[in-house]
Amino acid sequence: MRSIPKRSKNKSCLPNCASRFTNCRIILDCIEIFAAVPWQSMKNHRLTYSSYKHRNTLKRLVGVAPNGVITYASDLYPGSPSDKSIVASCGILQQMEVGNLILANKGFLICAPFFVNAAIYPRANSQYRMYC
């Protein structure tokens, strides 16, 4: 899943609750999963260790279309790289077009190209919530 759908495709299947976001192309988040790494390979152990999770992990950027369909999945990255560094290196920003909107959570701190809007929504435990 490396090629995300065009905005016109997303627009044609927007649910009613997302009708205000007609320029939204993708919603981004990263997932971090535990990884079993053999002790024989100390180099791989060191590369995949997450100081945040205190375990060996792999991290992936996932993109979801406004209608809830998973449309993008990056390569797996070892350890705990920042969300911002994954976005910068995976090539997803190069697929954006003029006027696209990217929704992401507070941890991303991404600086999208000048023609793309990036909306960072509040944390889940914040007093501000997004509802459809």
Describe the structure.
With 132 residues, this protein is an alpha/beta fold. The chain has 3 helices and 7 strands, in the order αβαββββαββ. The chain has one domain. Strands 1, 2, 3, 4, 5, 6 and 7 form a 7-stranded mixed β-sheet that branches. It is elongated and about 50 Å long. Residues 128-132 have low confidence and may be disordered. Pfam families: DDE_Tnp_4 (PF13359).
In short:
The protein contains three helices and seven strands. It has helices spanning 7-12, 42-48, 83-90, and strands at 24-34, 49-50, 55-64, 70-73, 77-78, 101-105, 117-121.
Characterize the biggest β-sheet: 7 strands, mixed
Cα gyration radius (Å): 16 Å
First and last CA, distance = 27 Å
Shape: elongated
Helix content: 10-25%
β-strand percent reads 25-35%
Q: Which class of secondary structure composition applies to the elements? A: alpha/beta
| Domain module tally | 1
Tell me how many strands there are: 7
The ordered H/E elements are HEHEEEEHEE
The residue ranges in which pLDDT falls below 50 over 5 or more consecutive positions are 128-132
Estimate the mean pLDDT confidence. Answer: 81
Count of alpha/pi helices: 3
Protein name: DDE Tnp4 domain-containing protein
Cofactor: a divalent metal cation
Keywords: Metal-binding
Domain DDE Tnp4: 28-110
